[in-house]
Amino acid sequence: MDNKPPLESEGMSLQVETNSPLQPPQEEISNVPVTTEVVVPADEPIQSEENISQLPSLTNYLTQIATNEENAQISNLQDPKDLDLKMLGSDEYGLYIKIPTEISAEVRDAQNEFVPVFMDVHKKYANYAEWEYMNPKNPFVFAPATIRIMSNQLIPKLLKETTKLFSNGVDESTERSMHWEESNIEGILNKLLAYESYRLERIMAPKARDHMKEAFPGEEVIKVKELCTGAGITTALMYEALKETGKKIEFHSADNSLQSVICAATLLTLRGIPTRIVLDSGQKEKNFEGVTIYFETALESMQKGDDTYHFVFSDNGINYFDEKTHFEVVDEMVKRVKPGGLFQDCTLDPGMQVDLSTGSMLKTIFFTKKENFEKNVKLGDTEYSIKEKNGISFINQLFSPSSTMQYELLAEVRKKLGFNSFWGYLMGAKKAGAITKKLAPKIAQDLRKTGMKTLELTGIEGSYYPPYEERKMSLTRFFELKLPKNNDMG
């Protein structure tokens, strides 16, 4: 993932009246059938539970990859048609994932149980900025069981097949790697259960959508470049929001961790988003309508070719770079934005870290009455209970709309789905919090450096959300720059 942490079917596409694996049953949300693009997997042998249980754990498997491939070269990328791949297909645009029918059914069952509970709680918080963007017909919601299925049944097998494509593996000198050293995939994906962790991304996405509508009303195609895909959470949010413009979306993303590439592609595929994977670094970008994820570094991705984009962004990616590389990447990103286009950068605040009190969280969940949860919501700097240590603000309790809703949802999951479901959710959310605690100190560049660099390059002031002058504290912020239509900069 470009040396940064994230916080990153065969068959035909049909229009049918049905639910994708990650959609709730329509009768729970709306009485109107919804036409949804789903991918119909090709016929293939279904993995038995016995075979699945014999797969190595993801952590052990990735450790094995790291050991076996440490000194290998990437020069010999094999043709996927020459290999007996069960879960990966290929076409002129790259590789695509084929989800076995049995696993699709498991995901659908998990979603059908969890999503109605989520939506029932969500409606109380829908007026807060971070929760306004939610498509009730296809809500961006993931059950804890769905994350376990992705982590244990899909991604390890996809990584195993992908490594077959490399006859000699990956050379460390290419700055690309087969794995991510900071965490395992389940830990990364559990961000989906910690709503605070992608709170601002749910605000960034509709802002980007609205700008594309306003700035490019006559454009039929919107071209997007994302750096540092990570787990694919922001990728999916952005793509789905941009599709609401009614335009064709050609979305190009890049990450230098194969683990990240496969994780993101799996998430996108389960959402019914057309997705392709390109493993050959430096390959020219094609006009695939959907998301293409390139296995390459951020700088490689920006320096190849001379394409320009309507929208260029990075989420929790480029601010992990050293200053020189950060400025080089920002320079390349801004150069590639079309006149009238948009640049966004989101990152954790290096002056704030997370050290949540488990006892306080459990007390809130177990002893707050249902009608009183929302009364705990605070906004602005009062959202955080802070302890200061050596100039760093440590958050030990959260009162934001995202966190308060999560506490109420946990309480409802315990009541409606049982203690096992509650405990699985709680442990997943705790893993996400542990990763945020580990990663926040690794932020190398304050977001204001990004803003200063873009001002130097363009002569235009961008804006921060939330604004520093209005809010002293925010675990995460994003910066955006809207370029003028006439491209008269500097």
Could you characterize the architecture of this molecule?
- The structure is a single chain.
- By secondary structure, the protein is an alpha/beta fold.
- The chain has 16 helices and 15 strands.
- The chain has helices spanning 26-29, 49-53, 58-68, 101-122, 129-132, 144-164, 185-189, 201-215, 233-243, 258-270, 298-303, 323-335, 358-367, 401-417, 419-439, 447-458; strands spanning 13-17, 35-39, 88-91, 94-97, 221-227, 248-255, 275-278, 290-295, 309-315, 337-348, 352-354, 384-389, 392-398, 463-465, 476-482.
- Helix 4 (101-122) packs across helix 14.
- The longest helix has 22 residues, at 101-122.
Which key features would you list for this structure?
disordered N terminus, three-stranded mixed β-sheet, alpha/beta, 15 strands, 16 helices, 490 residues, globular, eight-stranded mixed β-sheet
Supply the number of helical segments.
16
Give a short account of the largest sheet.
Answer: 8 strands, mixed
Q: What structural category arises from helix and sheet content?
A: alpha/beta
Number of strands: 15
User: Any idea what the shape is?
Assistant: globular
CA radius of gyration is 22 Å
> Average pLDDT value?
82
**Can you list the strand order of the major beta sheet?**
7-8-6-5-9-10-15-14
Spans of at least 5 consecutive residues whose pLDDT stays below 50 are 2-19, 24-75
Q: Provide the helix percentage.
A: 25-40%
